[in-house]
């Protein structure tokens, strides 16, 4: 009996949640084909961002790379989850997202908005985040269906912090980047909610792929959002590196993927 229970948490469709896409349309091993394939978008963006952020990570912290390694792990779990729609798949996906957020907060949450009792120690703040994420990890087993909503609510807090930062920022290009970031996120979250709540409608018109769009759109939004927070953080923490937002692949125009460029310290030292 016990071993049966162990097996069932891995079983196909043991998760309470089933996304709008029809199951087993392309293979009887893959429950949601398009949702599984589109999880690969995390695998496209993460290595590109890792490469582009190399100079920034060197100046600031190698933990910047950890974010993108974690995003790739999210990609693996997300693909596994949509392939199986299993309980374990769902929890792995959600818990991995929670810990990417935790690392993001530890790295980039602006010091001046730390809670008062933390003073301004980032390592104390890291402990607070670690504690909160650990408690949330344990709690996530209680009601897995609410986890995704809870994670999406964290984004609302990120948007709030972003608003605070934008108030004291006068750079027009950063304001534009913030608007573009929020735009991508709005598109992403509309797809996620619509897939969740209006599936009946999308089924009627035979278009139930919105969750796949979410995967791609949220990857883009995360790449933009991390650039913004990396920028604010660099302005406070490594101003001597002269942080500047650049775009890839077109360096001159403000289109494409944004990333944080920094001046190479050694180079500046040599020439001065
Ligand atoms: C001080 C702020 C620091 C910001 C750090 C941001 C670090 C990046 C964090 C997360 C990467 C998230 C990757 C999303 C994976 C989605 C996988 C997925 O589709 N899962 C679904 C099930 O298949 C599940 O239902 C989704 C749950 C909700 C996920 C919420 C993700 C939040 C993303 C945060 C985006 C920030 C963008 C900035 C917006 C202004
Ligand atoms: Ca489905
Ligand atoms: Zn998904």
UniProtKB/TrEMBL annotation:
Cofactor(s) essential for the protein: Zn(2+)
Annotated positions binding Ca(2+): 18-19, 21, 23, 32
Membrane topology: Multi-pass membrane protein
TM region positions: 33-53, 65-83, 95-111, 123-142, 148-164, 176-193, 213-232
Reactions this protein catalyses: N-(9Z-octadecenoyl)-sphing-4-enine + H2O = sphing-4-enine + (9Z)-octadecenoate; an N-acylsphing-4-enine + H2O = sphing-4-enine + a fatty acid; an N-acylsphinganine + H2O = sphinganine + a fatty acid
A biological-process GO annotation: ceramide catabolic process
GO molecular function, one term: N-acylsphingosine amidohydrolase activity
Pathway annotation from the record: Lipid metabolism; sphingolipid metabolism; Sphingolipid metabolism
Cellular localization per UniProt: Membrane
GO CC aspect terms: endoplasmic reticulum; membrane
InterPro entries: ACER
Keywords from the UniProt entry: Calcium, Hydrolase, Lipid metabolism, Membrane, Metal-binding, Sphingolipid metabolism, Transmembrane, Transmembrane helix, Zinc
Highest taxon listed in the record's lineage: Eukaryota
UniProt EC number: 3.5.1.-
Residues that hold Zn(2+) according to the record: 82, 211, 215
Principal location listed in the UniProt entry: membrane
Function of the protein: Hydrolyzes the sphingolipid ceramide into sphingosine and free fatty acid.
Family: Belongs to the alkaline ceramidase family.
Protein name from the UniProt record: Alkaline ceramidase
């Amino acid at each position: 009996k016990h071993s049966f229970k162990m097996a069932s948490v891995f079983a196909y469709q043991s998760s309470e949640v089933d996304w709008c896409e029809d199951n087993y349309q392309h293979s009887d091993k893959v429950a949601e084909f398009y949702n599984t394939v589109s999880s690969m978008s995390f695998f496209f963006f993460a290595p590109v961002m890792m490469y582009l952020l190399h100079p920034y990570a060197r100046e600031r912290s190698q933990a910047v790379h950890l974010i993108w390694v974690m995003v790739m792990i999210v990609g693996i779990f997300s693909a596994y989850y949509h392939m199986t729609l299993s309980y374990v798949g769902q929890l792995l996906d959600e818990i991995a997202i929670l810990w990417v957020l935790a690392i993001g907060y530890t790295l980039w949450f602006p010091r001046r908005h730390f809670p008062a009792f933390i003073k301004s120690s980032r390592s104390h703040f890291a402990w607070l985040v670690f504690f909160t994420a650990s408690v949330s990890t344990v709690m996530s087993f209680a009601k897995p269906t609410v986890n995704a909503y809870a994670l999406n609510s964290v984004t609302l807090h990120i948007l709030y912090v972003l608003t605070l930062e934008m108030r004291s920022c006068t750079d027009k290009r950063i304001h534009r980047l913030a608007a573009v970031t929020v735009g991508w996120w709005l598109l992403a979250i509309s797809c996620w909610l619509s897939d969740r709540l209006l599936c009946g409608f999308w089924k009627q018109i035979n278009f139930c792929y919105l969750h796949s769009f979410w995967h791609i759109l949220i990857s883009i939004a995360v790449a933009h959002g991390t650039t913004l927070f990396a920028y604010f953080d660099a302005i406070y923490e490594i101003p001597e590196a002269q942080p500047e937002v650049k775009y890839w692949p077109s360096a001159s125009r403000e289109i494409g993927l944004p990333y944080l460029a920094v001046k190479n310290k050694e180079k500046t030292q040599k020439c001065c």
